[in-house]
């Protein structure tokens, strides 16, 4: 038998096809082998352990058909249904309580209502006890706090300070009375500010006027000015600014230096505005 694998007029192309045919097909076989369908074998997990040889999909038995339960009429407290071709009877006790003839029992219809009322009463009493505990806790917390909102303590002078003598008197009071010092510091915290600089400037402006501030610088080493760092007021301002902010003493001290430094310039600006308004 001769197989015609390819046909072409060019010898070189036919020679290349011949080499491909030697690799891809068996040209030495006498007869063409018939094509058979590949057999499918089930995985090992679907094969019974008792079987010696694996079964193909065509040899497997069909699973049993699932039949639904057919409910029939119930007679004398019994329900009958048919399952797998057989009739079975199931008895059901439809009574709420079993009554013995020797010791008869009475069924009261009000028992569910009574149990619901008792549960509601217990829940209400529990809520009342919780409310009492909350009120007691709130009253205790209120008693611990002397004043709900910080109040400006009584001072010998009005703020802001206008004279040097008033500043010396306030500094002496803060040194001798720690309670007044802490109360004034707590009140200055409530002035607020969008940042550390704004908060520091608001506190200084609330306490001192520019007329008094121009006579001070922070260390008192230049232009024969007094040292603001030696005052008790300086420590109180630093504590008030640091409360509720992430800053250190050096940052607050630098802001106080700048505010004291620009006090003369602020006075000149105020005088210029007043001169313009008068003219």
Automatic annotation (TrEMBL):
List each copy of the DUF4806 domain by range.
157-239
- A Pfam match is DUF4806
Q: Name the domain of life.
A: Eukaryota
What this protein is called in its record is DUF4806 domain-containing protein
């Amino acid at each position: 038998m001769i197989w015609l694998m390819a046909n072409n007029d060019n010898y070189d192309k036919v020679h290349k096809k011949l080499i491909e045919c030697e690799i891809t097909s068996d040209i030495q076989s006498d007869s063409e082998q018939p094509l058979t369908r590949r057999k499918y074998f089930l995985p090992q997990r679907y094969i019974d352990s008792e079987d010696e040889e694996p079964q193909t999909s065509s040899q497997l038995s069909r699973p049993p058909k699932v039949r639904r339960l057919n409910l029939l009429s119930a007679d004398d407290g019994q329900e009958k249904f048919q399952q797998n071709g057989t009739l079975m009877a199931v008895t059901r006790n439809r009574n709420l309580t079993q009554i013995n003839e020797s010791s008869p029992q009475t069924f009261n219809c009000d028992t569910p209502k009574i149990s619901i009322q008792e549960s509601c009463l217990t829940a209400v009493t529990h809520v009342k006890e919780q409310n009492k505990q909350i009120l007691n806790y709130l009253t205790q917390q209120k008693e611990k706090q002397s004043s709900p909102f910080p109040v400006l303590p009584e001072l010998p002078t009005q703020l802001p300070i206008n004279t040097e003598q008033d500043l010396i008197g306030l500094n002496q009071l803060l040194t001798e009375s720690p309670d007044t010092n802490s109360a004034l510091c707590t009140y200055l915290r409530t002035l607020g500010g969008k940042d550390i600089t704004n908060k520091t400037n608001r506190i200084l402006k609330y306490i001192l006027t520019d007329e008094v501030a121009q006579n001070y610088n922070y260390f008192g080493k230049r232009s024969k000015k007094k040292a603001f760092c030696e005052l008790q007021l300086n420590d109180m301002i630093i504590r008030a600014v640091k409360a509720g902010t992430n800053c250190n003493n050096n940052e607050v001290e630098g802001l106080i230096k700048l505010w004291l430094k620009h006090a003369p310039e602020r006075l000149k600006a105020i005088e210029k505005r007043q001169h313009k308004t008068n003219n």
